[in-house]
Design brief:
elongated, single chain, 99 residues
Length: 99
């Protein structure tokens, strides 16, 4: 009989909030209680209910894979790294609007 696989290790905890950790604990509990199918269901629910938290948590488990996928999706959309840097600069610089 094969040993039960263990819950994946978190590789990068950078930027995880208490709410992220609470969600990770829910995923771990689903896995430990009901196995891989329950984990898959819980991950799908998280993706549907809170896409940002889903990406944050998946990046904690699989940082390289998530970064690569984001780069690929940006490239498919025609967004370059320079475009992204320019957008960040625009968003960070305060603009004064007069009416």
């Amino acid at each position: 009989m094969a040993d039960k696989e263990e819950f994946p290790d978190i590789v990068d905890t950078t930027g995880l909030t208490d709410a992220d950790w609470a969600e990770i604990n829910k995923l771990r509990q689903a896995y430990e209680t009901d196995g891989p199918k329950a984990l898959s269901k819980a991950i799908a629910e998280l993706a549907n209910n809170d896409a940002i938290r889903y990406i944050t948590i998946m990046a904690a488990f699989f940082p390289d894979m998530v970064r690569e996928q984001i780069r690929d999706n940006m490239a498919e959309a025609g967004i370059t790294e320079q475009d992204l840097r320019e957008l960040i600069r625009k968003l960070e610089s305060p603009s004064i609007k007069t009416h």
